[in-house]
Amino acid sequence: MIVDIPNLPTPPQKEGGIVRYLAELTTCLYEYLSHLATFLSGQIEADNLASYSYATADSGSADAEITITHGLGRIPTHYIWNIDKAGTVYDSQRVNWTTNIMYVKCSAANVKLNILVIK
User: Fold this and answer.
1) What secondary structure, in 3-state letters, does 27-90 show?
2) Strand partners for 99
3) What CA dihedral angle connects 38, 42, 46 and 51, to 10 degrees?
4) What is the pTM of this model?
5) Are 26 and 85 in contact (CB under 8 A)?
6) I want to staple 92 with a disulfide (CB 3.0 to 4.6 A). Which of 11, 103, 108, 110 is the partner?
């Protein structure tokens, strides 16, 4: 997404122009923010977004279950992961996830794992 910065009015160089400048600045910012709100309408939703960051330097053996105690108070719906080797992080026991605990596995052994859990 590319969002341009508005062309702001030039500040006055001499006394007496400050009122006009502030009026132009207010109008410019109002128009820009209105345009931005229209552009983003329905595109971003963050009501009640909760997240938990989990990291480990060694995930253990390949396909070993990793228990993450997230404490979000809700069952997570998504997670974003990153590992330092080729492999995949995937759900484990998804039906047993709770408002405090989730389970994942990693197809690679001994990886540095970072997960952002989202609900």
Assistant:
1) HHHHHHHHHHHHHHCCCCCCCCCCEEEEEECCCCCCCCEEEEECCCCCCCCEEEEEECCCCCEE
2) none
3) -130
4) 0.60
5) no
6) 103
Cβ count within 10 A of residue 68: 19
Pairing state between β 78-83 and 65-69: unpaired
Question: Residue 39, CB half-sphere, CA atoms under 13 Å: how many?
Answer: 10
Query: Per-residue confidence at 57, pLDDT binned at 50, 70, 90?
Result: very high
All residues at 6 or more sequence positions from 39 whose CB lies less than 8 Å from its CB, including other chains: 3
The answer on pLDDT for 68 being more than 60 is yes
Per-residue pLDDT, averaged over 18-44, amounts to: 80
Token look-up 């997570």 returns 76
CB-CB contact of 119 with 72 (8 Å): yes
- The H-assigned helical ranges of the chain are 18-40
